[in-house]
């Protein structure tokens, strides 16, 4: 039986272009503002210090959040509302509530 020709058959793919809809807010606004400022000022960093400082502050906050998350995951601490559980956290949860 030949499966490959069946897989390569044309499928019913819509030909109309699909417009972009922003479902969740984009998290790149600070990065985009830095690039826009640099482009406006011919890549002179001294004129865009406010945007660069805000971007660096956001970056450092993200680094700290990732480190805190790794520490919590290593200890197996459950965080409320967290949708992605590590195997260690899942085992702790199943030990607490075995009948659910």
From TrEMBL:
Keywords: Disulfide bond. Pfam families: CHCH. It comes from the Eukaryota. One of its GO terms (cellular component) is nucleoplasm. One of its GO terms (molecular function) is RNA binding. Transmembrane segments: none annotated. One of its GO terms (biological process) is mitochondrial translation. SUPFAM superfamilies: Cysteine alpha-hairpin motif. The keyword Disulfide bond applies. Residues 35-61 form the CHCH domain. PANTHER family: CHCHD1, SMALL RIBOSOMAL SUBUNIT PROTEIN MS37. This is CHCH domain-containing protein.
């Amino acid at each position: 039986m030949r499966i490959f020709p069946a897989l390569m058959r044309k499928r019913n793919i819509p030909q109309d272009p699909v417009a972009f809809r922003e479902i969740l807010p984009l998290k790149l606004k600070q990065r985009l503002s830095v690039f826009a400022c640099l482009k406006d000022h011919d890549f002179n960093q001294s004129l865009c210090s406010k945007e660069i400082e805000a971007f660096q502050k956001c970056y450092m906050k993200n680094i700290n959040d990732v480190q805190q998350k790794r520490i919590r995951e290593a200890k197996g601490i459950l965080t409320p509302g967290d949708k992605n559980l590590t195997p260690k956290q899942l085992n702790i949860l199943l030990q607490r509530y075995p009948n659910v």
